[in-house]
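Hi again,

Forgot to attach this to my earlier email, sorry! This is the prediction with adenosine-5'-triphosphate bound. I've pasted everything inline since the attachment limit keeps bouncing my files.
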Amino acid sequence: MLVLGVETSCDDTTAALLEDGAVRANIVSSQHELHEEYGGVVPEIASRNHQRLVVPVVEKALAEASADTTALDAVAVTHGPGLPGSLMVGLSFAKALARGLGIPLVGVNHLEGHVYSVDLDAPRPHRPFLCLVVSGGHTELVHVDENFHHDVLGRTRDDAAGEAFDKVAQLFGLGYPGGPAIDRHAEHGDPTFHDFPRSRLDDFDFSFSGLKTSVLYYLRDRPDTERNRLLDTHLEDLCASVQAAVVDVLVDAVRRAVEKTGVEHVAVTGGVAANSALRRRVEEAGTADGFTVHVPDLAYCMDNAAMIAQAGAYHLAAGHTSPPTLDIDSNLQL
Ligand SMILES: Nc1ncnc2c1ncn2[C@@H]1O[C@H](COP(=O)(O)OP(=O)(O)OP(=O)(O)O)[C@@H](O)[C@H]1O
Ligand SMILES: [Mg+2]
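Structure tokens for the complex follow:
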């Protein structure tokens, strides 16, 4: 079974080929440089570039897998959540291709893609498992019983973890996307340099907007010369302190959820799962509390179409396909 995955929900144009669960090609054409000068993704620029890139990216995936379209058994495509214009490009392309080839179309929820991205790397977590999906737009703690039978235990009430990293990075003058820059600078910093707030809500929900505000006030309440000196001499310590605040909250929620549910396997997925401190701290918690930890390869943490093909293949195995009238849903939830 050869499934083409197409994912254009934000600013990466991506296509992948998955053959019986094995990734044969995973192509990502990132538009980050095009959006960098604006400090975030500009929807209009993103959708225009998806239009320019979607065909060459799919052709590149096919070439890498030495396959042509006649070998395809199905097309899986992200239909939400994401930027409407961006989603529309991928979905229109996928619909036309599936229709032209007379093969099934499968609409995939981008967040399901992030959840099942963990299965792209052996060994797959046994079911049930807990999945912490941490990305630019989402922070969700999901209890997965079996494929497509899941419960969202908690999610962010305001900013996502990745968004918090991106906004703080901007305050520190580190550009976009900020997560990787904070991670890099934090490597040799002191995480106890400043005690930024950790919001612990009663249930498994998260809140990261207070952290961003606290960094804003921390910088704003100082005279210009002192602020510049701080950013010059203690940038690494500040990045480490912010990173520790985010990671503490995430790891604490995972440990509490493991304790409450008795689940023995934990996955961490999405762009923020690339964060080195988060990866290390979840591993340490797993060793201390006796749960196994599954974090996908970096290529499968960031937006990618292999994860969409994976979730799509599971849908097909469960007998789910989508009608040709499938529409985008920019606010689709898990
Ligand atoms: N090493 C890192 N440390 C922390 N954050 C990181 C790291 N690498 C990437 N990120 C963050 O991951 C986010 C991008 O992840 P991803 O591509 O999964 O999100 P998205 O697709 O934009 O959002 P969503 O999946 O919610 O729609 C950005 O916020 C980025 O700053
Ligand atoms: Mg994503």
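Residues 235-261 form the longest helix (27 residues). Residues 117 and 307 are 5 Å apart (CA to CA).

That should be everything now.

G.
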